[in-house]
Amino acid sequence: MQNLNVLVLEDEPLQRLVTVTALKKVMPGQVHEAASGSEALALLEHCERMDIAICDLKMPGMDGLAFLRHASQSGKLHSVILCSQIEPILRQTTASMIRRLGLNFLGDLGKPFNLERLTTLLTRYQNQRHGLVTALKKSELPTLADVIRGLDNGEFEPYYQPKVALDNASLQGAEALARWNHPQLGVLPPSHFLHIMEHHSLLDRLFWQLFDQGLALRRKLAQKGIPLSFSFNLHPSQLASQTLTESIATLLVLFQVPSSSITFEITETSLISAPASSLENLVRLRVMGCGLAMDDFGAGYSSLDRLCELPFSQIKLDGTFVRKMGHHPRSSAIISYTVALARSLGMSLIIEGVETREQQERLLELGCDIAQGFVFARPMPESHFIAYCIR
User: Fold this and answer.
1) Ranges for the EAL domain (predicted)?
2) What is the DSSP string of 141-199?
3) Radius of gyration of the chain (CA)
4) What is the DSSP letter of 59?
5) How many CB atoms lie within 10 A of CB 17?
6) 251-289 pLDDT tens trace
7) Which of 12, 118, 314, 347 is the most exposed place for a label (fewest CB within 10 A)?
């Protein structure tokens, strides 16, 4: 772990002592402490930069909320960890406030003090900083000409993230995610190329390359006695195509893949003002026997309306609810509600973003069956996924 500059803002002496002592044991760097917001601001003024502030909210004088507002204006504070006993819904709103102040919210430590949770949040900061440094080392982002060259040379390929049963981690299917094997920059995620592709109408070329490779792998696995279900992401601009469903049907026949084993994932927000041609394609895909998953369920503002109007067969619950589950009771309630909703509608439910065994166990208690996330497996190239399937 790299050296960090951390500020502990806590008015209760014993809690502050416990936090400071733990920090000095688990991380290299300098630990500052303050008993009030004004004292914390004075410390901030005399340092060049503060990596993280571990911040209580309720205290005499200048409270944590006021400190965060002033700290954001100074430009010296990067990230915040909350450590407060106020109601979960108030902590959640405070987290939103922190983000809108332009600060990086790492998570909620809660009270009483939890060393394992603190270590997790510090590691999260280190991983984020490592990712930023890596990105900064890449002096140039790919250009349009570079993207076209990559498409022409077949450098784009699907990475497969398994979907597994929560109770025993048995493989249920996989989602195909776009990756670019760049000859100089290595494996790049969609954030490096999707914007360029969308702006220059190249998403179709990407989709058909990934779909071809995915169907070929599905056929290969079926021949080995592993007939998995695969899901692919569709962009709203592709849904408007008049040839979309015909082309999909042709490839399914060509690769001898049953339509029932293919699901297309579509974000709910992309369908708010979808044209009639997009809705026609949704109907045609379902008539063909393909599945339709509402991706990032709960991330938009009209999820229930979309479920009523459109022929979805699957719900994928946005991972933010899982991440908040341990610290915000309402998130658990929403997950439980979504389980009941999916069952009453006759839809399958996939839980996204499962990262810990504790989350896995809690989701099982809430009645969830299938999930995907780093605790089970990260997205992997075809050769690794085949090995994963036949292990």
Assistant:
1) 140-391
2) PPPHHHHHHHHHTT-EEEEEEEEEETTT--EEEEEEEEEEEETTTEEE-GGGTHHHHHH
3) 24
4) -
5) 13
6) 999 999 999 999 999 986 666 667 888 889 999 999 999
7) 12
